[in-house]
Amino acid sequence: MTDIFARLSACDLCKDRFAATVTGHVPRSVFQGEASAKVLIAGQAPGARVHQSGRPFTDPSGDRLRDWMGINKEIFYDATRIAILPMGFCFPGYDRKGADLPPPAICAKTWRADVLHAFPNIQFTLLVGAYAQKWHLSTQGSVTEVVARWRAHLPHQLPLPHPSWRNRAWIKKNPWFETDVLPALRGCLKEVLA
Ligand code: SF4
Can you list the residues of the chain whose pLDDT is less than 50? Predict the structure, then answer.
């Protein structure tokens, strides 16, 4: 565990790619977890604020995700219970419109299987956004289609949209997410984290 995290922290495979972005930043992998963790949050990639803080979800998306999960920061950042492993471990930079670039595919290809191997006690995985859903479920279809089939993946996995403010319209358009999916999410967490 310590070894793989040390290697991950030192990874600079995307050094040139990040240097060529508007922010010209250097790789800084951000993740959380200890081998005892029972819940995995499989996210997309850190944003600029998280890149600065070095701690996962220290941004409005994190506030919304914690609200969805019905847990406070103390539980959310308890690495003995919750692992946070995004599809890209470093902030990828911005595209021309100022939106976050996708997580570099080389990251999951290089690291994901080995890192997941270090978490043998995971019982429940939150698949946050399209990239995590594609990798973990090997599924086709839009986020809406995948999340709409949420019941099929319980009790071990639950696909969710990204908690970004950009998805507020999506949530409004799909009221079943708040009325049906979120209570199920909170119920599963209560059971697994008890
Ligand atoms: S995004 Fe992944 S592969 Fe790229 S530098 Fe960071 S840890 Fe390495």
Answer: none
User: For a pocket test of ligand 1, which of 18, 21, 29 has the largest count of ligand atoms closer than 8 A to its C-beta?
Assistant: 29
Task: Assign a CATH topology to domain 2-193.
Answer: Uracil-DNA Glycosylase, subunit E (3.40.470)
Best substitution site from 15, 23, 89, 110 to test ligand 1's pocket, by max atoms within 8 Å of Cβ? 89
- Asked whether the whole model's pTM tops 0.85, one would answer yes
Ligand 1 centroid to 156 CA: how many Å? 27
123-157 pLDDT, tens digit each: 999 999 999 999 999 878 999 999 999 999 999 99
Q: How far apart are CA 2 and CA 19, in angstroms?
A: 28
Break the chain into its structural domains and give their ranges: 2-193
Question: Can you list the positions of beta strands (E) in 73-168?
Answer: 82-84, 124-128, 157-160
- Tell how far CA 45 is from the center of its chain: 7
pLDDT in tens, 52-70: 999 999 999 999 999 999 9
Per-residue b or e along 98-108, where b marks 16 or more CB atoms closer than 10 Å to that residue's CB: eebbebbeebb
Instruction: Give residues with Cβ within 8 angstroms of 124, minimum separation 6.
Output: 38, 39, 40, 155, 156, 157, 158, 188, 189, 192
